[in-house]
Design goal:
It holds the Pfam family Oxidored_FMN. This protein is an alpha+beta fold. It has 3 helices and 4 strands, in the order ββαβαβα. The protein has helices at about 35-45, 75-95, 105-115, and strands at about 10, 15, 55-60, 100. Helix 1 packs parallel to helix 2 (about 75-95). The structure holds flavin mononucleotide.
Length: about 120
């Protein structure tokens, strides 16, 4: 059997196979960077094989960080509540979830300067 489908321990978790979802921005947030319900559906579908590692897309951690239109944020209570929903949905299938990461400050500046 290919090693690709062999389990792999990552920290305290064990992946059932070695294929992970890479971070991919898919613009499923509203104009206030609030994740839309389709975000939950997107990650829930990709978590439907147990033991899969999902890495989320870039997430804005403050209004000063990397502000592209319609990418998700996690710096206010509405955004945090929406991500909790995503996490809850994913964990229904899959104990191994998502490392999140922030967008870059220089991208934010570039966007602000150009708009
Ligand atoms: C449509 C698209 C959106 C992407 N969004 C992100 C992102 O939000 N954050 C990130 O770190 N990488 C992002 N990437 C980069 C992919 O994760 C990267 O291409 C993937 O890890 C494969 O790596 P490689 O391009 O070096 O082969 C994106 C790639 C694509 C094609």
């Amino acid at each position: 059997m290919s090693k690709l489908f062999a389990p792999l321990k990552v920290g305290r978790k064990t992946l059932n196979q070695r294929i992970a979802l890479v971070p991919m921005t898919h613009l499923r947030a509203d104009n206030h960077h609030l994740p839309l319900p389709s975000m939950k559906e997107y990650y829930g579908q990709r978590a439907s094989v147990p033991g899969t590692l999902l890495v989320t897309e870039a997430i804005v951690i403050s209004p000063q960080h990397g502000v592209y239109q319609n990418i998700p944020g996690i710096h206010n209570s509405s955004q945090i509540a929406a991500w909790k929903e995503v996490t809850r949905t994913v964990h229904e299938y899959c104990p191994v979830l998502n490392a999140v990461h922030s967008a870059r400050t220089d991208i934010g500046r570039t966007f602000a300067e150009n708009s």
